[in-house]
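Database export, one record per block. Field names are fixed; values are copied verbatim from the stored entry.
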Amino acid sequence: MFFIPLFESQLKTKYIGREFVYLRETTSTNLNAIEAIKKDTHGYTCLAEKQLNGVGRRNTKWYSTPYKSLTFSFLIRENTSFDNRHLSLLVATSVSEAYELILGKKLKFKFPNDLILNNKKVGGILINKIKYKSTNFFVVGIGINVNDNIDDLEIKGSTSISIELDQSIQREPFLAFILNFFEKNYVSCKIPIDEWMNGCCHVNQLVKFNVGNSAYSGIFKSLNEDGSAKIEINNELKNISSAIFEL
């Protein structure tokens, strides 16, 4: 179960998570958040134990384990300081701050939207920008394997916090801390390029990726100010705005 009073006792935000919906099952928490746009509910947050059609980037299926994972989405009005790429960096670093508050260490990141623990994927981020009437919104979807065991995981190369640390953690304060840090960072309008780079797990490493139907490989060097990746290919620096990297 997810104990809402425990979650609420740790939530320190002004907006995000203040309208909170907990569901045993839903089609997609992102779809729930999109529906909330019609009410202009800045900060609406939906957590579901099971998604019937949860998706990641490029419509890949996202699996979660009921009562063990954190699978949630929240809705925010656009802050013009951030675009989709910047927001993905902000979410990743906010999750890492929450993780550090509980466990005293930080997560790592893989471009563009993966959360990494001990060189394995422990979570992912999906950002959608949607315009409704005259207002732009971001729908932020996050999936984190928290207390899943090995038999729960269906994606090769993935892991959970519980597996890697050999301990379970309470999901309620973890979620509250993520939202607390995110709102603080979002309001600050600071783009966390340096913070993300400090946590990147593949700086100066060979990465493989596809752009359209073409396959490429190169050395990941850094992020540009717009959040795109700077890759060295055949001794030339190329800017890659969107690609799924393989290490």
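Remark 1: The mean pLDDT is 92.
Remark 2: The longest strand covers residues 120-132.
End of record.
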